[in-house]
User: Fold this.
Amino acid sequence: MEFFIKAAQLILSLSILVILHEMGHFIPAKLFKTRVEKFYLFFNPWFSLFKFKRGETEYGIGWLPLGGYVKIAGMIDESMDKEQLKKEPEPWEFRAKPTWQRLIVMVGGVTVNLILGLAIYAMVLFTWGKTYLPVSNAKYGVVCDSLMLAQGFQDGDMILKVGSVVPETFNQISREILIEEAREVTISRNGEEQIVSLPEDIDQQLLENNKRALFAPQVPFVIDSILPNKNAAQSDLQTGDRVVGINDVETPYFHHFRNEIQKYRGERIALLVERENERKIIETEVDNEGMIGVANRPPTAYFEFERQTYGFFEAIPAGIEHGLNVLSGYVGSLKLIFTPAGAKQLGGFGAIGNLFAPQWNWQNFWEMTALISIILAFMNILPIPALDGGHVVFLLYEMFTRRKPNEKVLEYAQIAGMVILLTLVVYANGNDIVRWLGG
Assistant:
């Protein structure tokens, strides 16, 4: 069921973004009296799932969910309609329009995606506000990823600064290390300030080991609920018990317990718990999955979270600022793709689908839709033939030189761009399959 929920969110998100992106081309084309022959959500080689014609335009839904398109008369695009281009330009064709009009048509989709992403972020802040755990409020310190432990960090460290920046959120710690290339982290350990130095290739090490969350807040383990029909329900465990040990091994925090209990699958264990200022030994069985059937208290029970609400006019600049930070972070991370480790992290539809929550959550849905919209805006403006940015490059050449590029050059560039894009699509989705198979 989780797969279908994520897939449904992905399809809905892409449908919204593709339709609005293509409207960004369609509307200015119509305003400039350019004939639009087709408007499609998804591609439709050989057949369409649905189509109808209104006026001069055929509207439809294709079966190949790799995007969408508008077919504008007289334009060299993925349709490669050579017969039309052999004829003299008609007044309603794209190639007959002034350069500035063609440029507006071509940047329309990217502009819509960028504005849409910023607008969605503003809407999310206005509707739900922002709730987060400040790094300074992680009073038990952090749990370190194994790669961070190898660099000299210890569980329980308090993160004070990353480079010269005092991080506000845990995501900002990763951003400063990976994107801003901070290589010194100031921590507090046992009340003393220390500096942990990171190697220059730490970003490559993180990519090679597929590490994403470098630190997480360390939390105790106080039983919040006991699941019926599980082993813990047959024991003397009670909600509110704090588990601090297994079989004479101290487990003061939840990650200690989680790691230790895996050693006793299918066995009986003795738990050391604290209850009303007393310590008790309580026995229970561990099932074959390493579970006893209890749930920890939520993070809100341990930490003071910050919540910020936004009025309508406050949400607009805040949403724009957040969206531009997302864009700069994405652009900054692109340098990592041009490395062997980074190339392996490229993902296709599977990776994009995994951005969405396993249960339908509208806040997460809109946040991920805004993220994808901003990524689409940036990717589409790249100067690659077959993308909007490739068309823009040739139009700028024409504006500055006052000469139209040779149509054969445009045709071959379009073919080359399509080959590049299809290769990337196959490679990225191939990475998804390899990861799914456990490679």
User: Anything to note?
Assistant: Residues 2-31 form the longest helix (30 residues). The chain has three domains: 2-128+365-436, 130-219+303-308, 223-297. The first strand starts at residue 36 and ends at 43.
